[in-house]
Amino acid sequence: MDEVGRIFGDVGLGVFQLSLSRPVERGEYLSVEDELHGPVLCQLDDLKRKSDLNLERARQLSPGDEATVQETLLGTARVIGYRDAQGLVKLPTIPFRSGARVYRAEESLIAEVLGLKRRASSGAYVGLLRNHGLRVELDINQLVQRHVSVLAKTGGGKSYLLGVLIEELLRHKVTCVIIDPHGEYGSLRVPAEKNGAHARFGVESQGFGRQIQEFSPDVTLNPSAKPLAFSLRHIEPRELLIFMGLPNVKAFLAPLKGLIESVAATNPEYTVRDLIHAAERLEGVAGETLHERLEYLEQTKLLAPQGTSLKELVKKGEATLINLRGVAVDVQELVVARIASTLFESLKRKLIPPLFLVVEEAHNFAPQQGTATCSRVLKNIASEGRKFGLGLCVVTQRAARIDKSVLSQCNTQLILQVTNPLDLRAIAQSIEGLTDGMTSMIQSLPVGTALVTGGGYHTPLFCEVRPRATRHGGESVQVVDN
Ligand SMILES: Nc1ncnc2c1ncn2[C@@H]1O[C@H](COP(=O)(O)OP(=O)(O)OP(=O)(O)O)[C@@H](O)[C@H]1O
Ligand SMILES: [Mg+2]
Known about the structure:
Shape: elongated
Oligomer: single chain
Largest sheet: 12 strands, mixed
Bound molecules: adenosine-5'-triphosphate, magnesium ion
């Protein structure tokens, strides 16, 4: 047993102070022997060096003088608990004694109390417990049933980690639909180039080409995708104006409605071309503009008499990428609104298998302030989706800007480095069990380390994210060559 210090002072039930005889890093696991229940797992939450060098003496030191300083390393530790005979995590009901020895926790105790066990058929292996070789496997049923958020500042590693998660879901044949605004996830088809980290984490490089299908409203820009089209008959005139790039031009609403009614009266299977012919007969500015914008709409091929069918869009055990690269923001919102509501309605009627809907850049699609066309349906999915087998995963670089009712419904959070105080506050407010020590650690997390809360674990833990089995598609663009 590796003794690292002693408890001192007044000892509480959940927190105690210790003087350290050896340096231990913040966040490290410790153990203290409880008289009734044996070893109890604790975690070092904060550290301070106390010294006898006061201001007076420090000021008397001349440049170059060696200071003789008596110092002690003091720590604040938090009690995590022990497993009782029923396998439940319990906190001791009597405080530890002052003077009690504190040890570095053994791996077997950490694994037992944190619940780091192999979940084989239901575990998503996302990485290793920081500073330990223990696998962190999230419970896939919890992920899908209780929603997930991935939060970090820009460049913090969100898309990388999400790629890891999707690889795991595909290995377990979980159906996914991924809203991919930057076209980053097509690289899930391509095996990663192996490096030293792959061996350390026990990861094989592997492509998922057979389980990925990609759709995009713009196949000219995104040639690897199949065209995504919506059924013209099911689009409201107001939505049609957004697709036409005329979102706020109310003056065109009535003429457009008139056009649609006149065309649909003779041909219910009408096309955009039929609307264009009808617009040619319309006089004035409205006629001209509608004609021109309908020509544009026809080119986008976004609307057809028959839209992309649900059967094509969702395939059991596969991931569908909705690649929105190069698509105007308001059209992106409409696409997300249409897809999210179609999936939700279809799941309610059990037409498709349970699935995981991933929304990247979610602060744009479910903003806290203002509205996006798709906000309402995403909020409904966050609050009711799990009853119907629709899991939601929101990814954002601005925790403060995403709708809080969506964020607080996410029971698993994967948090990488966040430095913005407003985002940190939003995170602290929406997550139970996050200590002040952890919140401050989030600010200095290195790229590739995540704080995981939920996912089948009862206490938040730090995880070194495993390397990708597939190539990461969100590499930063080099402005100047090295
Ligand atoms: N676990 C990791 N291991 C190795 N490299 C990583 C890891 N996580 C992130 N990176 C690297 O860090 C960079 C940024 O990661 P990523 O693209 O995932 O950031 P992001 O949070 O999605 O950023 P943005 O908000 O701009 O989309 C990438 O180039 C990636 O290669
Ligand atoms: Mg990203």
